[in-house]
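pls design
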């Protein structure tokens, strides 16, 4: 088997994204389109063949999508940190820092749960802010834990417009914001919050497409665990890797030469 446990853990994030997040995106986008078409048809003709329950299903699936995106994001940023913690046994050198990070994870998840349950506008704003702050702070903890020593952290600060990391953080914050304004959308008579919702989630949809592209690209650049010591010695800018050392010949053995045919075998036979 070519996949070690470390490699399998790396695949959990993309597997959940493919099996859970992206199917939900397609369903939610379809429901959103159906909801808007029904609203326009009712406004123009007074009735629509699209069932009214489509709006409720869109909201419910959207809430599931937001939760899935946040959890997949937290999982994606946790795996490399946990890998470095286990590799360097950081619980012995920086136990206080690791404790704070663990508490921050719990606080972020708790804030997300409370955001789902909150009804007053003030508390929705508070829990959405706390959830967003937790996501951003945790996303940058590899600077403190990993110290940018692992090239598998694809932040790509020099080309952040094509960064899977920045796309992921941004789209996660947009999902949290969408959760916070659900009730405002239905209470706003002038549809200002609905317009904000449509614009921001259209941007989120584009970012999801970018996530699919950049995530696939990054998977191609992550080597298997047993390949890391060799791959990370390569010069990525010039696309060159060090030459492998020549094979050492053991003592007491004669060098091997390619077999050559005998001259007699090449001469024509005499009859």
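designed seq:
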């Amino acid at each position: 088997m070519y996949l070690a446990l470390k490699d399998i853990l790396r695949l959990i994030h993309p597997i959940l994204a493919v099996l859970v997040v992206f199917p939900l995106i397609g369903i939610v986008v379809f429901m959103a389109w159906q909801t808007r078409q029904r609203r326009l048809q009712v406004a123009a003709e007074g009735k629509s063949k699209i069932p009214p329950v489509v709006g409720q299903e869109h909201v419910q699936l959207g809430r599931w999508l937001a939760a899935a995106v946040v959890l997949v994001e937290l999982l994606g940023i946790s795996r490399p940190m946990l890998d470095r913690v286990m590799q360097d046994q950081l619980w012995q050198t920086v136990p206080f820092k690791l404790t704070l990070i663990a508490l921050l994870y719990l606080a972020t998840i708790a804030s997300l749960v409370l955001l789902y349950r909150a009804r007053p506008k003030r508390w929705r704003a508070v829990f959405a802010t706390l959830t967003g702050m937790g996501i951003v702070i945790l996303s940058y903890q590899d600077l403190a834990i990993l110290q940018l020593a692992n090239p598998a952290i694809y932040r790509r600060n020099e080309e952040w417009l094509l960064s899977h990391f920045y796309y992921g953080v941004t789209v996660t914050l947009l999902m949290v914001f969408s959760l916070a304004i659900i009730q405002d959308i239905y209470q706003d008579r002038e549809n200002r919050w609905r317009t904000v919702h449509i614009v921001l989630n259209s941007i989120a949809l584009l970012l999801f497409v970018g996530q699919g592209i950049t995530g696939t690209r990054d998977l191609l650049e992550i080597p298997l665990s047993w390949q890391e010591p060799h791959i990370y010695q390569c010069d990525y800018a010039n696309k060159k890797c060090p030459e492998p050392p020549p094979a050492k010949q053991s003592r007491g053995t004669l060098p091997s030469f390619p077999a050559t045919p005998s001259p007699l075998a090449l001469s024509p036979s005499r009859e």
